[in-house]
Design brief:
The protein is built from 22 helices and 18 strands. The longest helix is centred in the last third of the chain and has 19 residues.
Amino acid sequence: MNNVSGLTLRGVKGVAVEVEVDITGGLFSISVVGLADTAVKEARERVRAALRAAGVNIRGRVSINLAPADIPKEGALLDLPIAVALASAAGHLSVPRPSLFIGELALDGRLRGVRGAVPAAFFARENNIELFVPAENAAEVSLVEGVRAYAADDLREIIAHLRGEKELAPVSGRKIEDTVAPADPDFADIKGQSAAKRALEIAAAGHHNILFVGSPGSGKTLLARALKGILPPLSDAEMMEVMLLRSTAGLNLELSRERPFRSVHHTASAVSICGGGSALRPGEISLASRGVLFLDEFPEFQRDVIEALRQPLEDGSITVSRAAGSVVYPAKVLVVAACNPCPCGFAGDSERQCICTPFSLERYRRKLSGPILDRIDLHVAVPRLTPEELVSLGGSCGERSETVRARVAEARRIQAERWSGFGFQCNSEIPEKFLRRSASMRSDVRAFILEALKGVKLSGRGLSRVLRVSRTIADLDGAPQIEVKHVAEAISYREGEATAWMTA
């Protein structure tokens, strides 16, 4: 087996690419086979120039095979392994043991950072092989424990290391600090909206999706941004998932336990949100995994984009299928959607009159289908602030975010302990069969639910989500059993003022 391997990405996982080189006599030429895309084929010129700059001249006809041949290879990750394999085949160096190389080469031999360094580090650790990366990728590789990695600034350093002339220093491991950044905005800075703040606390505690409905300027965006400040910091496992996704997408790594917050404009395409494209990269819903995805002006999104959210909201993952293949990305995201009650924004407003025609109103509301609304646990009306609330100056407007965050963290701890035997973390993840079996209720709750269903139209999925929200409210109260008051509050978020606006 060849000791020189590169990497190509399939979703968030790395697939090893063995680089085989054959050099024969004749005029110089390089051919690359093995389902290589344009970026990989262009590596021929980059590699030749970089090797020449490093003092390695290649002569004759060169054939490069990237195995396995049936897996598409894309990007510039394979520049470095191709260069090392070429130099090894020409007798300029030897690779004594199986090693993994990733990196893009400049014409003068410098190594440029590439996406996919974290998947490469996980692959190297799992297969107990050495990893060589550009110096730009050293920071993210250092966060993966147990990997033997070396970082270099240029190809000369790699060649000198392999020749035994000058050894590279191994990449030192490091930990991400547990410090939590101050909330911005803080709950205490948000005027009024006590009901919306309560709903946000429930959403954060049980990882429930939430929809804000209110007039322009009522504070929907501010509330959505405040949600991140009450979420507990990322655990080690969640941090690794976030790192994998950001590295796969080629984004800078944020060395913080702060949860992701992604805000998407309503003109975004289905590919940008769900993922895909020719290179099968993760979309916004995956990049926000373990954090918050904010969809402002929700009905203004294209209908196909809104409907594409059904599967990830239900499963916590998204399957992207293209001609090049099919990959699965994590999508354990807390969706915060915001919208006006009508196109002009003032339906049900106490201060201004709605000027929308019945046709435009119906067309606007029809964009939010029943199945989508069914997958959003909390529907919350955000009323216009009173003049007194608007002009209030100074002082606190309720609890601070850190106080709410402590309650949320405790509720999540309770949930993690309860569902640990099933492999779940939050109430929103619980399948219905586990929920009905393990959700402890007081004896009078079932009778209350039966009576409530006579006046409230709920699907089977809607009822399950009401029970999940009820369980979260009970956890926030520290109650061992679901009580009538918990169910009543949960139902109010499905059949309250916000829902009435959307279905009037």
